[in-house]
Amino acid sequence: xxxxxxxxxxxxxxxxxxxxxxxxxxxxxxxLDFPVPDSPxxxxxxxxxxxxxxxxxxxxxxxxxxxxxxxxxxxxxxxALDFSPYMLAYGDxxxxxxxxxxxxxxxxxxxxxxxxxxxxxxxxxxxxxxxKGSSANDKSAKLALGFHFTIFDFGDPRLDRxxxxxxxxxxxxxxxxxxxxxxxxxxTPFPGxxxxxxxxxxxxxxxxxxxxxxxxxxxxxxxxNWNRSSWTIAAAPTWSSADGTTSGFGWNGAGVWTNLGYxxxxxxxxxxVSQVVGYFEYRNREAVPATxxxxxxxxxxxxxxxxxxxxxxxxxxxxxxxxxNTRPQMGTSEKYVQTTIAAEKKIADKLWLHIGxxxxxxxxxxxxxxxxxxxxxxxxxxxxKISAGK
Amino acid sequence: MSNIDQQTATLNPxxxxxxxxxxxxxxxxxxxxxxxxxxxxxxxxxxxxxTAIGGDLIGFSIGQQPGNLIGNYLCWDITVVSPSGGxxxxxxxTISIRQGGSPVKVFQETGPMTAAYQSLLVYVRFx
Lengths: 390, 127
Fold this sequence. Notes:
Chain A has eight helices and 13 strands. By secondary structure, chain A is α+β, with helices and mostly antiparallel strands. In chain A, strands 1-4-5-6-7-8-9-10-11-12-13 form an eleven-stranded antiparallel beta sheet. A five-stranded mixed beta sheet of chain B has the order 1-9-6-3-4. Chain B has one domain (about 5-125). By secondary structure, chain B is mostly beta strands. In chain B, a hairpin with a 2-residue loop joins strand 7 and strand 8 (about 100-110). Chain B has two helices and nine strands, in the order ββββαβαββββ. Chains A and B meet through helix 5, helix 7 and helix 8 of A and strand 2, strand 3, strand 4, helix 1 and strand 6 of B.
């Protein structure tokens, strides 16, 4: 512990001069998430709806759509819908064993699955969003459709038969707990059909045991799968209408995102600790809000990047680079590459040492300065900063 | 839907020994135990199983002549677990009771996953 703290202090002293000229104040700003939005319709409209309707039956979907359109066929209020069309229509016919067909364990003990049209269909999400002008003079309306495709995801917990067996064992244990509790006091294992108190007690006992057993298993599975290979694609076309009428809708741009992660499933040693992620984003007619130095405008933008993460329990390294090209209708276009290398080491419980170095090149203003970043996280709420790019 | 459901199934006393199928849909993990409770309140375990071993559709025989089942209850303890945690997901359990291959009663327990797990008690009274 003493050696670790000394090391941290030395690093801090060495890097103080560099910090003074840093362009960015923390390492965290150099760590990119490469997100593909779950509901791209809302992302492309630039809204974050407080209430999203997630219909669970075709009837609920129809009702939601009808409620959002007035008698003249125009949108009444903001619509925010998000659902899986396939699961909405056919989820009743999708058992978990049908869903995970074609999956086997690889030589390194992780899942290896064939591409599956069923899984692709089941995990395809459709989002629908609308916005209307916010003032009496602004009658405009915007509409976006968002498509989110998971082409494959080896980290899908439904594909891990070992995990499913653990869940099954936990369910069996919870059932046994509730029944044994009744039997030990001389009752039948199962509450009778007229015993409403016994039924409630039985469900409470079983649920309390499930609550104790199931969430930790799911959390552990998520942690185990942090670096599994996956490929997601999202796209969201938009339309706008100046007068708010449905007949007035015309093209208003689109957004496309994709994220491809590789988790070294067949490489012993790396399969549990490393991931490479590639990312691409294109936005057409993206709204850029006004700032103190520039007026609101629209722009075309491209982001393309890559990231490599190596993560053991107490030591993480990431190297990432992103190309950014923005072309606003008003203002200056920018084109640059930002590269960051970051590392963090757990030196005690809830105490991580972070260090990062990075630079930008190709800025239109011609400044190509290197910057050095450090930050220390002390305290009980601090956690690792480097995470998977999914 | 309530987590406790009561159903009835009308058997043909002269028909074949009834059998049962339970199916878990919506891509969820499921487990059940099925008891037969006679008119004196005695309970006997008929079958227990789950999707991890038995598959999505699990069938079994009740093992008694239909004439002896009138007034008895088939009691189901069912748990459904969402492997991904249950957010914005549904569960569906379909139970069908058949005699000689023909359905006598088919019903579904369905609804939103309010947590990563869901417990259900289902009673089917034979008449």
